[in-house]
User: Fold this.
Amino acid sequence: MTTGFIGLGIMGQPMALNLARAGEQLVVWNRSPARCEPLRDAGAQVAAAPAEVFAEASTVILMLVDEEATDGVLSRGTPDFARRVAGRTVVQMGTMSPGYSRGLEADIRAAGGRYAEAPVSGSKVPAENGMLVGMLAGDPETVAEVAPLLEPMCHEVVTCGAVPGGLLTKLAVNIYLITMVTGLVEAVHFAQRQGLDVATVAAVLDAGPMASPISRLKLAKLAAEDFSAQASIADVLKNSRLVAESAREAGIAAPLLDESYALYAETLGLGEGASDMIAVLRAIEARTAALSAP
Assistant:
């Protein structure tokens, strides 16, 4: 049976490649056609439009940047929507708002389709290595159907109950990830301004109990001043917004996330939207500069 994959960005392309390399029969589409070429080389069929993906595939994975893009490829709100999703399973793997996912599930089921959400924890390198963590939610039958499909992309898949349990879990995990990396960048900024060698600070952190694969990766990028994106400022800002909105709607305090959200917004304003999330350093540097301004 053919699986569709729509959305071949920083994360989606390596995820789809892992599926193709595992022998999955794939049909793919991406708004920028050049992103499809590595999939074609790996044996996937490249569709001319999203409608062709739905025509060919019984299960369609969506790894798209936002809700507008997702609605667009589904033709949601038009007569084509039911024709695309009826009799098919849609697996939404992007990070969207929990309320959006709940509504999308209802619409797909009403149109005769099946739905699961499966956001992932990880960035470009884990995606390339098939080492993401999937957070899978949906009705039990759909979850059982989808779980094996996630295995080539994820080293572990955690079942999170009904929709939107997967996305709520992802947002909780994102609070820790975002505030942790922001704290790490702040520590490096402090070390730099105190005249310390960043490599020495990194050696201490790497050897201690706070070390993790993500801290080691980000410290190496900071030491090399490598701001190429693994998880971009624009994406992290979007994820921070989703957490902040969900927290406010539920009456939950999220003070560390709120401060990080402000810093990533400032970083975007400095023109660093396409840079890696460690470019939040630029906003912290700007705040330091403001302290000494006349």
Notes: The first helix runs from residue 12 to 21. The chain has a mean pLDDT of 97. The CA atoms of residues 288 and 294 lie 13 Å apart. DSSP finds 14 helices and nine strands in the chain.
